[in-house]
Write the structure tokens for this entry.
Amino acid sequence: MASKFSGIFWTWVHSSTGPKTTHFWAPVCNWFFPIQALYDWNRDPAKISKEMQCVLVCYSSLFMRWALRISPQSYILFCMHLFNATLQGRLLIRRLMWESSQQKAIEDKPTN
Amino acid sequence: MFGIVPKLQQYVCAWNFWPAFMKKFIMSEKGPFTIFFWTPLAKWGISIANIGDMRKPVEQVNTLQQCVIAWTGLLFTRWCFIIRPRVYSLVLCNFCMAQTGLYQLYRKHQQGKLFTR
């Protein structure tokens, strides 16, 4: 009689790269980066850090290439960094457009 | 993809003034013409950007982003110890990333703005 804890699912749970190990949770936690960018979809641009967003876009762009060059290739990591680069890039663009509009408002302000 | 980077690598390596150790570095598998060289630098960039942001007012610090940076930093520090081969520079990089994230969260907590967006 098959044990309750045999089968593909439980074999995976107890495996060396399963959910009881850091090997599993470290890449899962990487997904919190794009999830955070989604949560901050409408964040006030005055509160976005331009430098941090630049760094995150560069970081994800480089890791997209890295995910395809490592052995074995990790398409999930590639997708995660693709989403992250796009979403963090969106926040960066929001900030840059806000700065540009602020600059324009200062220039257009009538001087007495 | 189009073979540009290997051609550039060969071109740069052919310059006469490089000493032998520099040529070895340029042509190595983890040299400056490969992605394996630049990815740890990008990760260090996150810590450096966070250190730069410490001068800014806490309202500009994103709580959720710092939580994610701190948590992934800590988890990847642990991950770097269990993979083979161990790369201690990556351990240091992830540890610093986590520390800068935690310090930013502490700054927000000190001003009572940890849960404000």
Notes: DSSP finds five helices and no strands in chain B. The mean pLDDT of chain B is 88.
